[in-house]
Amino acid sequence: MTDLTTSPAGAVTTVERGRFDADEHGWFGEPGLFGGRFMPEALVAALDELTEAWQDAMADPTFVGEFDQVLREYAGLPSPLFHARRLSDMVGCRVLLKREDLNHTGAHKIRNVIGQALLTKRMGKKRVIAETGAGQHGVASATAAAYFGLDCTVYMGAVDTRRQALNVARMQLLGATVVPVESGSATLKDAINEALRDWVASVDHTAYLFGTAAGPHPFPSMVRDFVRGTGDEARAQCLEQYGVLPDAIGACVGGGSNAIGLFTAFLDDPEVEVYGFEAAGDGVDTPRHAATIHAGESGVLHGARTYVLQDEDGQTKESHSISAGLDYPGVGPQHAQLAHSGRATYVPVTDAEAMEAFALLARTEGIIPAIESAHAIAGGLRVAERLAAEKGPDATILLNLSGRGDKDMGTAIEYFGLGEADGRQPQPQGAAAQGVQA
Amino acid sequence: MSVAEAFEKARSEGRAVLVGYLPAGFPDVEGGIDALLTMVEAGCDVIEVGVPYTDPVMDGPTIQAAAQQALDRGFRIADVFRTVEAVAATGTPTVVMTYWNPVERYGVDRFAQDLAAAGGAGLITPDLTPDYAPEWIGAADKRDLDKIFLVAPSSTDARIASTVAASRGFVYATAVMGVTGARASTSDLAGPLVERTKRAASAHDLPVGVGLGVSNGEQAAEVASYADAVIVGSAFVRALLEHPEDREAGLAALRSLTEDLAQGVRRRA
Fold it and tell me: What functional role does this protein have (chain B) (predicted)?
């Protein structure tokens, strides 16, 4: 049951600064450590204008009401909180999944783009640009642009346009222009670079719909405000449906928007453990991973001071993850601060662990998750086993199922050798899986 | 010679300063030094040595390609100091232009120290504005280095004033809204921006340099009519990129381009 009194727009009318909010310069926690705005002067006026428009909008009941209405009627929110019973039986305590995979366009990202597109209209701009990795933010941006009647250009690494041809087609069908980016490593970080280059030249009539809670101030805070409905809904749903707060919550972290969307509502609940699951690729002891908080060091990337995968000269290293959406060598600065302060714990999850969880969730609950979200399932089940051992069957973990896996079927076909009706099935490995099959 | 002295000299000669840019390590470290020395000989008054970086969000395709080539050939930060040292030894003021993360990673004070030790005159920081630069400002002041910050057509008068107040050496006016790259025509945004910047800069006696994709003497003369310095980057890079297999031809192209530009800043069309 979903509490229909919960606002999908969340508690966004709060304008007072809480202890987890950034200051007026964009610093999270101690000034100078994480966040800020390391940007060309040419973009500062636009970022100031955006900051003012966002803060003004958040305090305007008309804007918040329209945001809420569009999320409800168009995007299908609030999303349900689902008790995954077979997974719960398997690990020995209650596993709840926030079903953001059921949202329009298939992920939490619709919340962010509806918020930013609504703000674009309010600011009187007619064109939006976006970067995309796997294509989910690009599809969401193209969708919002179609809905609001805005011109839309999406920058996507040339490597990713080939990996995610289906999403390129979706964006094109929705009326967006998709520009393949050949520079650098031709992946997400280069798509961001190219979008910023466009924005420097087009800023007077164009809004940059940034796809995650990273980048220069105000993006980390603004995106957080637009996606925090995930956690606001989940917290209210958990209390209503189970009468308790969860013992732990968890989400995957690339740039970190779905995670900050879930975490925000719970940060002031000290009894709730908070986990972010980073993509460990082939393993954090190999060069092929995207575990930025675990293995990165403080630096400046795409406008914010945060943890960055970089070499000793400060050159950005190429990241790797089987999930394109987590394949980013930076992370949102608020996550860096939450890790630094100890309020949240960030744990690496390998490609293999994520793919095991991907197959497991499909077979135990009938849900094919995005591979990104499968990282949260894999890491979350490890936490759940510990909670069950410590607190027994009444322990509760709430995980963000941030997106659905249709887009990942190409990867799954290749990884598991699927698609030929030869009687084979993907076999989840490991002790946990044995319990399910029993 | 300091940057300020180079501007003083040009002013006394009734002309603008020619600032020439190349990224370090392009086409390789020694080749880059040769190229910069050629530019000095042929008439550049101030040299900007760029630091190749993996994520150059302010650069267009020409400079991106050069920086990528330098990185692919194993460019290291130490190569910047080597390059600066070789160029500064000619007596020509030499500044470094860099995205911020390589400096931060190297250590801000350590970078300032090594830059000063190499004879470098200062730093141009395209993605670091004075309001986020307290550490760099402190280190620069300690080492007597120039802090060259940027203003843009979109900058408010208040931001221009605070940027000018924080700068030393000169103020860098990016006179087009867009990335670096040679342009066929000069921007009509440049004049008004320089005028606004000069108004703020006059109290500090700070010169204003303009970068907007100048690629020939005629454009240089036009910009020199209202700016204290004409900054040229992509056109130099392109001269080298067009002769990938023939170093001598590349240097010859660089020399004739520099001479054309140097005549331009003396013409003040």
Answer: The alpha subunit is responsible for the aldol cleavage of indoleglycerol phosphate to indole and glyceraldehyde 3-phosphate.
Report B:141-180 residues touching A (Cβ under 8 A). 149-156, 159, 163, 174, 177-179
From B13, B34, B41, B48, the catalytic residue:
B48
**Cβ separation of A301 and B101 shorter than 8 Å?**
yes
Q: Looking at chain B, which residue has its C-alpha nearest residue A200? A: B178
In eight-state DSSP terms, residue A79 is P
Pick the CATH number of A81-105+228-437 from 3.40.50.1100, 1.10.287.380, 3.60.21.10, 3.40.50.2300: 3.40.50.1100
Chain B residues within 8 A of A38 when measuring between CB atoms: 100, 127-128, 132
Chain B CB within 8 Å of residue A303 CB:
yes
- Cβ-nearest to A313 among B105, B153, B179: B105
Pick the CATH number of A34-75+108-224 from 3.40.50.970, 2.130.10.10, 3.40.50.1100, 3.40.50.920: 3.40.50.1100
In the prediction, which pLDDT does A165 show? 87
Residue A46 with chain B: CB contacts under 8 Å: 154
Nearest C-alpha in A relative to B53: A315
- Taking only the tens place, the pLDDT of each residue in A14-45 is 456 788 999 999 999 999 999 999 999 999 99
- Residues A49-79: pLDDT tens digits? 999 999 999 999 999 999 999 999 999 999 9
* Active-site annotation holder among B45, B59, B114, B228: B59
What is the CB-side half-sphere exposure of residue A205 using CA atoms within 13 A? 6
Four-point Cα dihedral B134, B137, B142, B145, nearest 10: 160
Q: What is the CA radius of gyration of chain B?
A: 17
Active-site residue, selected from the candidate residues A131, A194, A233, A273: A131
Closest alpha carbon to A123 in A150, A95, A102: A150
The architecture of the domain spanning B3-267 is Alpha-Beta Barrel (3.20)
Query: Per-residue pLDDT for A48 more than 70?
Result: yes
Please determine, for residue A322, whether its predicted confidence score (pLDDT) is greater than 90.
yes
> Active site includes B30?
no
List chain B domain ranges: 3-267
The answer to whether the beta carbons of residues A283 and A321 sit under 8 Å apart is: no
Using CA atoms of B185, B186, B189, B195 in order, give the dihedral in degrees to the nearest 10: -160
pTM, rounded to two decimals: 0.94
User: Which residues of B fall within a CB distance of 8 Å from A303?
Assistant: 127
- pLDDT > 90: percent of chain A: 86
* Nearest-CA distance A46 → chain B (Å): 8
Phi and psi dihedrals of A382, rounded to 5? Answer: -65, -45
- CA distances to A77, A243, A288, A431, B6 from B49, in Å: 53, 63, 33, 58, 17
Q: Provide, rounded to the nearest whole percent, the portion of chain A with pLDDT above 70.
A: 93
Every domain of chain A with CATH number 3.40.50.1100 lies at 34-75+108-224, 81-105+228-437
